Amino acid sequence: MINRHFSRVEVIGDVKVGDDRSVLLLSNHTGWWDGFWHLYLNMKVFKKKFHFMMLEEQLKKHWYFNYTGGFSVNKSAKSIVKTIQYSADLLSHPQNIVLMFPQGKIESIYKQTFAFEKGVQKIIEKTDKSKVQIVFLVNSIDYFLNKKPILHHYITEYTESDIHYLSLEKSYNAFYKESIKQQTEREV
Question: The pTM is what?
Fold first, then answer.
């Protein structure tokens, strides 16, 4: 589907992926394509067993995502504690990648800053941080002179020791702004 609907896919940034750490992938959430984009990136770069957190009501509508690594979160229920523990358990195995949209909802691709939910911090607190690689991902598209858009994946590893969700949020927003700056300065 990616090759049919996009003229090309570019991965900008360098993240050294190892077999000894799992990956927590934090990304902007812009719409329907996100899951396909992330799965494609995983196949090309990370090559790990793919898992992703999805709102319970969306997973009920799109039940087939249960078979592609999707698991549910219900933000208004006590089950969120189980979801946090399940995510941490997944991250305890180095062959796994867990995708999260830390803002917890779909937002416009033109959004400039993101407010993170506290769940990402809770998950990281329950893991052995030395065995989890935190990676930021910014997805953007441009058409330029093409009929089909170009998909850009900007990636970087978060290496700071502070895992408070506000520190993650601040660092992600800085990376997002830098990625968009690079995007706007790209040659056609």
Answer: 0.93
